[in-house]
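RECORD TYPE: inverse folding
INPUT: structure tokens
STRUCTURE:
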């Protein structure tokens, strides 16, 4: 396990979740809920226009991932959004001292920006395309998708996206949904800040254009959240949660947690295949 913030290289796939396009791979959410676990009402399947947002498998709804009301001690004003990429949470401050906390997945881009910004654009089922740098560094994975993907539940940006601007200019920092609910609470190679689709839909409705957003630095995260520990599962918990840390250690030593490096390699190959299949599909539509 790793003390945060010193992020390790995590699953390549959970940034774009391209493996989900192929309908295979370890990062894809099961189509049915885990037996014996209940899906909270807010995370059940819901109609969204002509689409249906699938229910979130409750196996992914650990205490830090589920939205919950919390006391908030940060300096931000009500109405603000606060992103902590290191504790992997997002706060929507709704009144003095109170906020709704959401679990998030964090990509490298999500850790490369800090400070203040403003929501200047909002999109439902946004278009997505890989950046030139992504195509250059991983051409097998991103090259087939250079033309981009139309909006939909198989799009890496998920159901909604908030676009952040600073001094009138696009920061290329996004808060968005995900096609891979298993990634929430974890660090990934690509992407910005991702929420369960149910969470981003509701945050999208509540956050007006002009909403202030503050993205914490490492120092701010340590000061306000305290040190975090990354478990072998890829999730983080406060360093003070010794029970969770010890349980994770025992499960790892017992072989109950898969080696993420092996999972990553398998997912990468599945992602490349799914990207190629997606390219053929898009060409067939043109």
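DESIGNED SEQUENCE:
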């Amino acid at each position: 396990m790793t003390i945060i913030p010193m992020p390790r290289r995590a699953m390549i796939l959970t940034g774009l979740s391209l493996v989900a396009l192929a309908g295979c791979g370890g990062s894809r959410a099961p189509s049915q809920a885990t037996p014996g676990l209940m899906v909270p009402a807010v995370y059940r399947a819901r109609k969204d226009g002509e689409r249906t947002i699938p229910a979130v498998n409750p196996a992914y709804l650990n205490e830090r991932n589920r939205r919950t009301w919390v006391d908030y001690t940060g300096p931000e004003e009500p109405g603000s959004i606060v992103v902590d990429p290191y504790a992997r949470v997002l706060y929507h401050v709704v009144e003095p001292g109170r906020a709704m906390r959401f679990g998030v997945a964090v990509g490298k881009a999500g850790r490369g920006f800090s400070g203040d910004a403003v929501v200047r654009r909002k999109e439902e089922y946004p278009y997505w395309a890989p950046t030139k740098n992504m195509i250059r560094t991983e051409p097998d994975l991103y090259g087939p998708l250079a033309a981009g993907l139309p909006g939909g539940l198989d799009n890496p940006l998920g159901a909604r996206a908030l676009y952040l601007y600073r001094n009138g200019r696009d920061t290329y920092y996004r808060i968005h949904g995900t096609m891979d609910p298993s990634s929430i609470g974890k660090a990934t190679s690509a992407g910005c800040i991702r929420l369960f689709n149910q969470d981003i839909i509701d945050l999208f409705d509540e956050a007006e254009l002009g909403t202030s957003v503050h993205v914490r630095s490492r120092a701010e995260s340590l000061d306000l959240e305290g040190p975090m520990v990354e478990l072998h599962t890829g999730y983080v918990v406060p360093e003070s949660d010794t029970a969770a840390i010890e349980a994770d250690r025992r499960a790892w030593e017992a072989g109950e947690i898969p080696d993420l490096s092996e999972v990553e390699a398998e997912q990468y190959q599945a992602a490349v295949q799914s990207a190629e299949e997606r390219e053929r599909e898009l060409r067939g539509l043109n």
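NOTES: Confidence is low (pLDDT under 50) at residues 1-33.
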